[in-house]
Amino acid sequence: MKTLKEILSNSRGTLSLISFPLVTLIILLGLSLLSKSLQEYKLLKFRSNAYLCTKVFVRSTQNLSDRLHKLNLALAALPMILLTPAASSYLKLKKSLIQLGNTLIILHTSKLLSNDKCTKMNKAMFMKSKPFYGKLKAKRNSLGIIKLRKKWKIKVLHTPHRVLSPLENLFYIELNFQKKGLSLKASSKEINTKALQQLKHYYGLGSYAL
To answer: Fewest 10 Å CB contacts: which of 5, 49, 165, 184?
Structure first.
């Protein structure tokens, strides 16, 4: 006959054998849920940064376009000064307005390049999508008026870090800019894709600004 002490000792051993895999399973489930939550957080942060990056680009582009349009109006009206006693100041005023426009373009470019929510690829796309014609410098006519774009489109590709599986989570935001009256309007739509072929297509494009 086993003593009470021996029975209790055997019961503890049996419980220990049963509880160990159960505790291990609970720990593993907890780690799995934690890992999934971290992945969801990283994905949410990636998408939030992508939209903040795009928002800054859109607002800055709209502001630049509106300000350059106002400067164009001033430059177009400036020759009227030649009919007044202040005609001698025409060239000086024209030069000042042109320099102001160039400064606004530099500030716009600097703002986009310093945006820490954007990737290097995003910034490269933005540098090719400007509200005016011209590459390094804006195209101007003899009066100094900048040739502004009235309608264009850009597809901004957002690719997460490798830990988030880029091919499964990448997406792009298609932006459509159109001049309406004195203001530049913008509309957007998100397009998701898991296709590797589409990723290759975008990397193969010569220009992201259409």
So the answer is: 5
Nearest alpha-carbon partner for 129 in 176, 170, 69: 176
CA gap 174, 108 in Å, rounded: 21
**pLDDT tens, 111-167?**
999 999 998 989 999 999 999 999 878 999 999 999 999 999 998 888 776 655 666
Identify the residue whose tokens are 């895999």: 21
The domain limits of the chain are 54-203
- Say how far apart CA 142 and CA 146 lie, in whole Å: 10
Tokens representing 192?
């998701």
Indicate left, alpha or beta for 159 from its phi (over 0: left) and psi (-120 to 50: alpha). Answer: beta
The whole-model pTM stands at: 0.73
